Amino acid sequence: MFGYYFKLGVRSLRRNPALTALMVLTLAVGVAASVATLTILHVMSGDPIPSKSDRLFVPLVDNNQPKGYTPGDKLNDDQSSYKDAIAILNARVGVRRVIMYGFGPSVEPPRAELGAFNVSGIAPTADFFAMFEVPFLYGQGWGEAEDKAGADVVVLGRELAEKVFGNTNPVGQTLRLMGFPYKVIGVIDYWNPLPHYHHIIGGPGSFGKPDDLFIPFNSAIRHETSHSGSMSCDGNRDPGFQGLLNSECTWIQPWIETRSASERVDVHAWLDNYANEQRKLGRLQRKAPNYVWNVMEWLEYRKVVGNDSKLQAWLAFGFLILCLVNTIGLLLAKFSVRASEVGVRRALGASRREIFNQFLIETAVVGLAGGVLGLLLAFGALALIAMQSNAMSVVAHMDWAMLATTFIMSVAAAILAGLLPTWRACQVTPALQLKSQ
């Protein structure tokens, strides 16, 4: 009977075309607004590395001055000083440790017609590529030997590699960065985890374009490469780059990867022991708690998804509910004019359950039509949102999960809206309808 009722539902769309079009449009607008907002929230709040997000940790200590500090105060800054970062890198905890900072180097391409231009980059240690599962198109990253020596080698992003060297393998070529010759040893494939959990502070931002290149951390330090992004300095600092390294200024991002999520306690224990040792040396006098966040906790702590985005999603769903109320009224009007039809069917032996199933399937057909139109409207809304900024163009796209959600939400909303009108239709008394004919 489902197929028969479905055909009846399709035919019913043509009975009152104006009323049907109004229902479909009302439902489609509500679904489109909700899905467009939910899609952006889905991309922004998703797990960027589900295979290991529970065993990648950001360890931080509070190295600010004790003056003005009250126990329980939140951490003032979210990065590490050079001293603490090197200690984390050399720690015997976890399977991989990475420290990094962002920088904005100038590039002098071998093709003179391009001219020099600036890009965004990261200066990480060697485990960066394995820790964050970076895919390579050509070559590979550097090793521990190049890391310690601060070798002038560079890994390019695919977009930059194609811009400078064309559609060829540039491994072995030389590229001048900041006035120094760097040897290209690798090109990463398209890699743009959303959000940019590995490099939230500084750089292109949580939802910006991917970084253009990567050089060894010690190479950037050896060339006294200025960082890009925020820096917090609590206390006096000697002048010059060496003064920065000796200072308590925080500007470096540390990460630790463990074999399992349960080893988090080992990371915290090491961090507590390190902090106690530093206090004996006169540092970390605040005696504040030490912090260890996994990836999703880190995104929550950094408020990557702001309260305004969540509020917009709730408002969109409120608008959908308003559209459903209007759809209920339209369905009541549509089904009320078919009371005589229901009376005749009941008199011929149709049960209330059969009437209920027929009308409910008809509302599902309306929901399916609204889903198709709502999907088109959602794509249009996302396209308009993407035009606002580069960051929005990255997050305003629909995946298969949201595509399926659109249809499920539309049909479910139509069925929900059709429950009351369908129930009312089932209450028709056959005798009264037959007498009125």
TrEMBL record:
It is a multi-pass membrane protein. It is found in: Cell membrane. Keywords: Cell membrane, Membrane, Transmembrane, Transmembrane helix. It comes from the Bacteria. One of its GO terms (molecular function) is transmembrane transporter activity. Residues 20-224 form the MacB-like periplasmic core domain. Residues 315-429 form the ABC3 transporter permease C-terminal domain. Pfam families: FtsX, MacB_PCD. The chain crosses the membrane at residues 313-335, 355-388, 400-420. Signal peptide: none annotated. GO terms for cellular component: plasma membrane. InterPro entries: ABC3_permease_C (IPR003838), MacB_PCD (IPR025857), Macrolide_Exporter_MacB (IPR050250). The keyword Cell membrane applies. The keyword Ubl conjugation does not apply. This is ABC transporter permease. It comes from Zemynaea arenosa.
